[in-house]
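[Q] Does anyone have a clean structure-token version of this?
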Amino acid sequence: MRRLLPALVLAPLLAAALPGEAWANGRFPESNKVFFAPNDPNTVMVRVTFGLVVSRDKGKSWDWVCEQGIGFTGVEDPMYAIGPSGTLFGTTFLGLTKSTDGLCTFGFEPGVLAGKLFVDLSQRPNDPKSIVFFASVYEGQNDAGQVTFSSNLFETTDEGATYKTISDAFDPSVLGETVDVAPSDTERLYLSGVRGQGTAPVGVLLTSTDHGKTWSTLEIPLVAEERSVFIAAVDPKNADRVYLRTSAADDKPTRIFVSEDGGKSVRVVFTGQGALRGFALSPDGSRVWIGGPLDELHAANATDLVFAPKGAKVSGPPPDGGAERIQIQCLTATNEGLWACSNERSGFIAGFSADDGATFQPLARFCDIRGPIACPEGTTTHTQCVLGGDTEPRRAPWPIQRSGLGCGGSLDGDGGLPDGGTLPLLDDVPPDDGCSCRTAKRPSWALLAGVVSVLAIMLRRTRRRRAT
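[A] Here you go.
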């Protein structure tokens, strides 16, 4: 099986790079992160394994933005941030993608950011125009045969009008994973990563107290089948307090750590039965929630971090054949309450709790998604998510995606419908006419080039799903 792993990992990436009519990326449909707009309380975005679903009315209705419209395909879970004016930033393996027109037109940022493999970002809560972006990619092997990585940290302080490099002098033996800024200290930055290959990886926490000029390093030994260390949150009032979690397959135990001294040391505060994919810290830092597919929702006061199960249930009648408890895929805390990602067996893909996680009101299910978000002709979202691309033959992706979610008739091997009809081909739709609002579709060979560098990362761990 070890020899088969490269082929198994590479296959979906190659499939995504080559032209064709397959819109599914081979991943099981799920939701795994909730995002909010700092200046628009009605806008909610849920990251799913087939793009983004977006609500402009606080969860009453939902629309879809496909992966191709955003600028990526395959096994990726980009991190997103929304600026004060509504600009969306997304980290992808091919660069930093950005939309300034309500998720209709996406394009990769040029200059120092061009072509970087971005793994994470962090937005300052007190200054949402300021965002830090972290890129880290496999570089090669040194003369001693050791695998090396190249990492870069960038920043915008004006919502993407300009960018500057914060730091690029990182230990080449460390593969970067996550970045976080301290809300209470503009000079404090935290990075996490992993060092070492094979069966003995070591987690790494990097801390800077001078905005990236210098870094201190703390090694965090990993146990059992843990793969890496991710930053979960930084306390909003105490820059020295940082929460971390380890990553592993869903059925393997992971741990939650806390550092009280700015990354000089850590202690374990919780060990899960499986992967703890959900972590949330209240906006004032006083309350912590954690959970995962195998671990029910737990909560603790930040003063003692003694976690207790919440017995979280879905409000109203339970779903037919549903799970007895909510299976946590993500958690996000706001001043109003706690948001969670789960699955259809739990009764929702996005739900909200106003009672500390005791009950969740379902706000979205896959079949609630109305279809592609409305965008003008010529925009990337319209071209890719409505028309099916800018090369012929075209096939509208939403009926295929909807069927794959179990919300419509199943497809036969030729794309036919049970009633004998077929999904709409869009061969009669002329190519885009060069509208200035359109971003050129990136060539498929660009993704093939990126596969070379991505493969080394994918062989050691799947793309992390940020839990904060």
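[Q] Thanks! Anything notable?
[A] The chain has five helices and 30 strands.
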